[in-house]
Every structure is written in structure tokens, then in C-alpha cells.
Design a protein that fits this description.
65% helix; mainly alpha; 167 residues; 6 helices
Length: 167
């Protein structure tokens, strides 16, 4: 017989994922003039630091990004590819929680999006790959470091991190 405790998903966890996803999609669509393309500051990317404090941010960010990218006009490559890159970045940010170093939380979204999204966006935009990497990294750094990191610090001061398991 399996002696491991059963893990149940609570309505609070589902709501957390849903709220984060809805916020991500809404912020991106409302701020669409600066949210899409090679020169972008997707303000919603500030939320990508949240997996550092709760694993339920991961599905929220993934589905929120997917919904937001439906409105971006770049088609399936961005809807599925861009969302997958956000999923990878969110998982990496979650893994960084074990370091206890919150300042590292913005790095996965910055690096994953800069190098990953640029793989297809430079072709669509007709720009050199490395220039697209630079532009995406700059926009991500603004959103994740200038907005996301202070959000993370504020959340850590107000509550204890929600752990999905041991590190």
C-alpha cells in the first residue's frame, strides 16, 4: 500500500492560477500597443516572478500567456511556442525558490524569452536574431526587474511562500 500522503488541489490553488492567468492576459491585451512585437515591454511579464512564491503561478502564467498571444496576431507559433517558453521560464523560476535568492527570479523569464521568442520573432519581424534578442531582453528586464522584482519583495514581506514540496 502506498504510504505517501495524497495531494489534493484546493479551490484556492485553482483560483490563484486563474487570477494570475486572467491578470496576465488582461494586462497584455489592455496594453497591447507595447505588449507585442520585437520592441515590447509586456508589463504582464512582471507576474513571471510569482512562481518563486507559489507553484500555482505556473499554470496561470502558461494559460494567461496563451490567451494573450491569441490577440497578438502572430498565429500558432506565438500562441503555442511563446506560451511554451513562458512555461519553461515559470518552471525554472519555481526551481530557483530553493536558493532563497529572490533577485534571481527575473532571470529565467528574461533569458528564456530573449533567446526563445527571438527564434521565431526575428524571422516574422525581418530583423537580425541578435538584435531581436537584445530588444526582447531589454523589454523583459524592464518588466521583470523594475516591476516584477519589487512585486516579489512586497509579496515576500506580506506572507510566507507557498511551497509545492521540498527543495
Amino acid at each position: 500500500m502506498d504510504s505517501r500522503p495524497k495531494r489534493t488541489v484546493t479551490s484556492k490553488q485553482i483560483a490563484t492560477a486563474g487570477i494570475i492567468g486572467a491578470l496576465y492576459a488582461a494586462l497584455t491585451v489592455v496594453l497591447s500597443p507595447i505588449s507585442y512585437g520585437p520592441l515590447q515591454v509586456r508589463v504582464a511579464e512582471a507576474l513571471t516572478v510569482l512562481p518563486f512564491v507559489t507553484p500555482w503561478a505556473i499554470p496561470g502564467l502558461y494559460f494567461g500567456c496563451m490567451v494573450a498571444n491569441v490577440f497578438g496576431g502572430l498565429g500558432p507559433v506565438d500562441i503555442f511556442g511563446g506560451s511554451f517558453i513562458s512555461l519553461v521560464a515559470a518552471c525554472l523560476t519555481y526551481l530557483l525558490r530553493c536558493t532563497g535568492k529572490a533577485w534571481l527570479a527575473p532571470l529565467p523569464p528574461i533569458l528564456c524569452n530573449a533567446f526563445g521568442v527571438s527564434l521565431y520573432l526575428h524571422r516574422i519581424a525581418g530583423m537580425p536574431y541578435w538584435l531581436t534578442v537584445l530588444y526582447i531582453a531589454a523589454g523583459e528586464a524592464i518588466a521583470c526587474c523594475a516591476l516584477g522584482y519589487p512585486l516579489l519583495v512586497l509579496l515576500q514581506k506580506r506572507s510566507q511562500p507557498t511551497r509545492g514540496g521540498t527543495c
